[in-house]
Amino acid sequence: MASAEIDVKYVANLARLALTPDEEKQLGAQLGSILGYIEKLRELDVSGVEPTAHAVPMVNITRTDEIRPSLPHEDALRNAPRQAGGLFIVPKVVE
Amino acid sequence: MLNQLTISELTAKLAKREVSARAATQACLDQIARVDGKIHAFLSFDAADALAQADAADKRIAAGEKNFLLGVPIAVKDVLAVKNQPLNCASKILGNFTSTYDATVIEKLKAAGAIVFGRLNMDEFAMGSSTENSAFGLTRNPWDLTRIPGGSSGGSAAAVAADECIASLGSDTGGSIRQPAALCGCVGLKPTYGRISRYGLVAFASSLDQIGPFTKDVRDAAILLGTMSGVDPRDSTSVPQPVPDYTKALTGDIRGVKLGLPKEYMIGGLDAEVKAAVDAAVKKYSELGAEIVEISLPHTDYAVATYYIIATAEASANLARFDGIRYGARVEGNDPIELYAKTRGAGFGPEVKRRIILGTYVLSSGYHDAYYLHAQKVRTLIRNDFLKAFEKVDAIVTPTTPTAAFKAGEKSDDPLQMYLSDIFTISCNLAGIPGISVPCGFTKNPKLPIGLQLLGKPFGEESLLKIAHAYEQNSPWQKEKAAI
């Protein structure tokens, strides 16, 4: 495993999470000790062990390709922070 | 006091027309008015709507309808969608969100006649073990108001323990039903992964989350499990396994049942009074005709570390949807990325941020194999430990928690210590097996509930409930009430 150091600023950017300098400092220290604890997994030899993604694996669950009722347009919009004309309003994406 | 009744006691009285659903609902609302100022189990509730549902139930009862939950007031953790009710996950980021549809479990409860009311406090996005991570204030333990009720479903446990509702729903990702049930002195059941549809449950860690009931006795847990179980086309991880009448399993006869005691659970941090209570429960099982077998779950010591990789990784992906675009609160930015980051920075609390950062890190380029894939392999070893143990025993007996309820503030500055308080409950979610916590005694001074955890085979809820029920019928703890 990697060293128990997190570049909090870099990871926060990946997570799209704005942190204050104080938060960055505090999280760095706390995550350092959590990662230190997690290092104990290195003791285990897992070569040849299959990973478990789900404890009760269900594969290829499909449904028939039929039109079914879906969320009404106005319901989909009713919790939006900003909306107009039946659309979500977002900052400009392209110049 | 109608609010103190169990589901089976209340429905029997309703069927005989001794009482009305309105009176039972009013009794719960009166109890909330009397005690919830101290306990703060509820984030909100709509009294008029609850009474309107009660009146509708009374009409159905008068018309001769019989149903498992007809007229029974049941409160809900703030993580499940109930149409047109608020849904906040005890977080600021959801703003004034109200659900546009019912979760599958809510549909099922309503169809069975339940009065679904109230939003119960929790750790923000179900991340925590004390309910101290709620953005809307602490919930107090009904047995001692200076102590935490456990978490993340702390409000669900406290509301049942304080008789503010007949039963409640919660969710369990690493112990979030069983641990607060133990600390508040009620029954809490986490079903097998896939037993209950997760549709309408806000996802924390999708491969670990299950919905389950908080109840005043094991029979009620069996009733609610039967009502809520079954395959659902809207949750592709729900399993098409037949749903039995779980109450039929409660025969009281456990002669010849084999119970496993994992030697790895007798750890240093286990409180002496908790250990004594669990030892006494095991002795009781022996008297009831069960055979006690020592077993080994050799990878127990790795469960917490495995959990905090897998759960945070899944959470970091699941919580990406809270970005200020389609619902909830928003902090404006000059471009979408800035808007996302500012919204999430302002909307999430410290524990959620901590887990998002950890989860993002263990999934990030260069670390995925070292952490996430490695943890998934250890998960296999942990699951295999259980499957091997279940070749020899019918269920596994452990303490639910290493100690009774701790004081508010005691562990909130040390996340790792808080994580380690889940040491006995976490493996169950990694293995996907069912687990239940039932009261098994009290500490002396102060008097605080102690929980006994029973873990069962995948889809072995009938056997698990039978074993839990047999103990409950032969112990005095369930009848004790907190003085509030």
Your description of this structure?
- The complex is a heterodimer of chains A (about 100) and B (about 475).
- Chain A has helices at about 10-15, 20-40, 75; strands at about 85, 85-90.
- The model of chain A has no long low-confidence stretch (mean pLDDT about 90).
- Chain A has a domain at about 10-45: Histone, subunit A, CATH 1.10.20.
- Helix content of chain A is about 30%, strand content about 5%.
- Chain A contains 3 helices and 2 strands.
- Chain A has about 100 residues and is mainly α.
- In chain A, strands 1-2 form a two-stranded antiparallel ribbon.
- An 11-stranded mixed β-sheet of chain B has the order 1-3-2-4-6-5-10-11-9-7-8.
- By secondary structure, chain B is α/β, with parallel strands linked by helices.
- The model of chain B has no long low-confidence stretch (mean pLDDT about 95).
- In chain B, helix 8 (about 270-285) links the parallel strand 7 and strand 8.
- Chain B has helices at about 5-15, 20-40, 45-60, 105-110, 155-160, 180-185, 220-230, 270-285, 305-320, 335-345, 350-365, 370-390, 415-420, 425-430, 460-475, and strands at about 40-45, 75, 115-120, 165-170, 185-190, 210-215, 260, 290-295, 395-400, 435-440, 450-455.
- Chain B is globular, with a radius of gyration of 21 Å.
- The longest helix of chain B has 22 residues, at about 370-390.
- Chain B has one domain (about 1-260, about 390-480): Alpha-Beta Complex (Amidase signature (AS) enzymes).
- The relative contact order of chain B is 0.14.
